[in-house]
Amino acid sequence: MKILITGVAGFVGRHLCSYLAGDDNNKIIGVDHDFKDFNPDNYGQKVELEKVGLTDRQKVFNVIKKFKPDQVYHLAAQSSVSHSWENPVETFRINVFGSINILEGMRNFCHNCRILVVCTAEEYGETEGEDRAIDENYMIYPQNPYAISKSALDFFSSVYFKAYGLPVFISRSFNHIGPGQSEKFVASDFARQIALIEKGDRPPVIKVGNIDVYRDFLDVRDAVKAYYYIVNKGTCGQVYNVCSGEKRKISDILDILISMSKIKEIRVEIDRIKFRAIDVKIIYGNNNKLKTHTGWTRDYSIKESLEDTLYYWRQKLNL
After folding, report:
1. What is the pLDDT of residues 30-76, one digit of tens each?
2. Is there a contact between 244 and 297 (Cβ–Cβ < 8 Å)?
């Protein structure tokens, strides 16, 4: 099977590549604008790479026309909420216009290819009550530029399914965590700071933003498994929450990581620079549809995810 992954060199892309490379029958075409330290030989088979920026319409078309993949996992995005506040135009250009190039390329050159469009739970915005897990029928109410851009893509994808019959699947993905994640994201940021403290490169103080909010954290390895299940076992045109189904306070994530540290006396310091302009208090998902439609189950606990994240940063910093 020929599988195209956009954003293959990113955090989720690398884990998805590892997951799909486990099947010797899969031929993977990895697309990204920058491959950094990405080595295709690490994945046990030849992974062909194409350096393409999604906003370059002709290059996107050429790749799709050349390979005519059987499946596309569209992961590439500007995915930082804080960056989207600083660069809303760039966020829209990549997340909306770049993604339309993918959909148009599929419509013109690969109409029967199954495509997963990865969107975000940020689309839902604030929930009405603390104990309500959001399902896919919940009204979307995006409250930051990143979420607005992904909401637009969500609607575009649904329209391409209805208007052109493209076999599109849409995920609304909640927070992913795990080894290899950028320090721009909260759990990885905490883990990196702890690793630096253990190494002696900074005082025993962790700087944090708003840790009194609740989020739904799912291990990235469970997330890519869910993506595969959606494309291969899900229903075309449907939206699927990809989440743990549990709400966790950010301060609890921090406490678990500090408990794993080799340094026992670590202080926590609030850093207002890390606060968002608008921060949703509580958001967590209902994953019943995903489980019912595809048979997906989780493999990793929150403790395992955080242990592996901290271990990743210790290795990266040569502890």
Report:
1. 999 998 888 888 887 679 999 999 999 999 999 999 999 999 999 99
2. no
Site of tokens 């890390």: 274
What are the tens digits of pLDDT across the range 177-215? 999 999 989 999 999 999 999 999 999 999 998 999 899
**Phi (first) and psi of residue 14, to 5 degrees:** -65, -40
Q: Which residue has the tokens 């148009």?
A: 104
Do residues 28 and 21 touch, judged by C-beta distance below 8 A?
yes
Q: Higher confidence at residue 93 or residue 44?
A: 93
Whole-prediction pTM: 0.94
Helix ranges (DSSP H) in the chain: 11-21, 57-67, 81-86, 88-92, 99-109, 145-164, 186-199, 220-233, 250-259, 288-294, 302-316
pLDDT tens, residue by residue, 257-302: 999 999 989 999 888 777 766 677 888 999 999 999 999 999 999 9
% of residues, the chain, pLDDT over 70: 97
C-alpha 290/C-alpha 168 separation (Å) is 15
Burial-class residue 170 by CB neighbours within 10 Å (0-12, 13-18, 19+): buried
Question: Cβ(243)–Cβ(284) under 8 Å?
Answer: yes
Residues 240, 173 contacting (CB under 8 angstroms):
no
| 105: Cα separation from own chain's centroid | 23
Instruction: Give me the mean pLDDT over the 313-319 stretch.
Output: 90
Domains of the chain: residue spans and CATH? 2-177+216-245+288-294 (3.40.50.720), 186-214+247-283+301-316 (3.90.25.10)
Q: Are 306 and 178 in contact (CB under 8 A)?
A: no
